[in-house]
Amino acid sequence: MLKKIIYITFFVFNYSYSQSIKEFKLLSEIDSTSIEYAHIIIDGKLKTYSNEKGKFKLNLDTKIDTLSISHLEFRTKNLLFDDIIKNDTIYLQENSTVLDEVFLSKVKKVTKVLLPKKSIRELIYSNKDLTFPYGFKIAVYVPNEEKNNFFIKKIVLKSKNKKAISNSKFIPFKVNLMTCDTVNNIPDKPIFKEDLVVGKFENQPLVEINLSKIREIPFPKNGIYVVVSLYDETYYLDNGFINKPSFGIVQLRKNSKFRQLNYYSINGIYKWWEPFYSKEKIQSINFGIEVEN
Question: Do residues 37 and 72 share a domain?
Fold first, then answer.
């Protein structure tokens, strides 16, 4: 009799639990293709992301006021709890850059990848990738030394690694571009109102973030900052991330105009600081951009 009671109790608990966990699928509004690695944000905090099949799960017993779905190539979708429970398939609308006028030109397009140029010291030092603390932001200044007008097409983040670890987790983080405060030589205003939600697999050698579907971004004459930041520590630990995203280091040439700045708190004051190894043109995180005329 006791065994039956235990079995019934377990069955009821298991059934109740399975009823509260609901699986959702993200599809493109245009062609119904699955949307992978979209960030699922509940009440302002990142909770999970869609897998390679566009699926994710939510516990509906947990209080949810608003749910936001964010992806670089799609418009952010905000849902209330009543909307969430109605459907298990959610469609997202693609971002599209619409220009008022299109000018045809016979001038051949030129594409350039702008990354810190390596010093000969690169042959001596075999630096590993770098991770940085939670709550940190890292910015790399990309100077504009081009004579012609260019537009920023991609953000480029390089690693020392040659190949991503198979079956590794997709580790989310955030990026943005910021203009340059030419008086203080620090990041000034963000190009995007909200940080772009992106990510990488463990040891992934290259991350290219295509901006062409979002908006047209002129490359400022006084340069641009590429800024990377992490989510808070709670998200990474609660979701079983053993490792944080890591990025490559490059040995700088002495005449390099690339600079690295770190944003963190000293004595309770958050501000941008340039580390000594950047001031002395020793090394920098290997961030850059791809531009096109």
Answer: yes
